[in-house]
Design a protein that fits this description.
With 219 residues, the chain is α/β, with parallel strands linked by helices. It contains eight helices and seven strands, in the order H-E-H-E-H-E-H-E-E-H-H-E-H-E-H.
Length: 219
């Protein structure tokens, strides 16, 4: 007797949609980064700076529970932005990305940035088909977040420590956070930045230029 399995788990469904996305990204030689951090840590602000730099070579998918406010901020930078409203969902999944891809001019871009829903937990374990996950921390959140949210920071190739302009007003052990990031993921690249002043973002852009589509992060 042949058994036919009628239902697949949500995890299996996501894994196969992520694999399909990855295939499309490889086909078009697009480098894809999935940005994850708390609500308000500065994801859109960093992406506005990045988008202005990569104008004409990038697109941004912006996930939010409700509204297209952040996607509009990217559009104001003259860069293609695709809002995904999860309608209550606390993270993007690979199917959201697959649907958004149908509208994106992939042959015309080198970089695709994904801003996930503001959350340090749920987006961590959902593969979207990306090349790299980016974690975003910000100074006023407190300096223990990397230790508290290991599922995310064990998967991030790149971490931003944002809002460095607020360091004088917060008791934040930035060297300790850098050590925590490296302990959570060996070889992680850390960028200490202020999206408000632009401090540190030049180093990020220089690094981004070395990320060749299709060949992953530089060694
Ligand atoms: N002082 C300071 N404020 C910043 C910095 N970066 C962002 N902000 C402010 O922080 C607030 C949130 O920034 P966003 O870029 O919207 O943060 P986000 O992570 O995209 O937020 P969600 O999409 O809601 O999760 C805004 O008022 C920004 O102006 C920074 O480097 N320094
Ligand atoms: Mg945002």
């Amino acid at each position: 007797m042949t058994k036919v399995r009628l239902n697949i788990s949500a995890a299996e469904k996501n894994a196969s949609a992520a694999e399909a996305n990855r295939k499309i990204f490889r086909q078009h030689n697009v480098f894809v980064m999935n940005m994850i951090g708390s609500p308000g840590c500065g994801k859109t602000s960093i992406l506005e700076y990045t988008a202005r730099h990569c104008r004409g070579r990038c697109a941004v998918i912006v996930g939010d529970v409700k509204t297209a406010l952040d996607a509009d901020r990217i559009l104001d930078c003259d860069v293609a932005a695709y809002p995904v409203e999860t309608g209550g969902g606390c993270h993007l999944n690979a199917e959201h990305i697959g649907t958004a891809l149908q509208n994106i001019d992939l042959p015309g871009i080198d970089y695709l940035f994904i801003e996930n829903v503001g959350n340090l937990v749920c987006p961590s374990t959902f593969d979207l088909g990306e090349d790299s996950k980016i974690g975003v921390l910000s100074i006023p959140e407190g300096d223990e977040k990397v230790r508290k949210y290991p599922a995310l920071f064990s998967r991030t190739d790149i971490v931003f420590i944002n809002k460095t302009d607020l360091l004088p007003y917060c008791n934040y052990d930035i060297a300790g956070v850098e050590r925590d990031c490296s302990a959570a993921r060996a070889g992680v690249r850390i960028f200490k930045v202020s999206a408000a002043t632009g401090e540190g973002l030049g180093d990020w852009i220089a690094f981004l230029e070395t990320c060749q589509p299709g060949s992953g992060l530089p060694a």
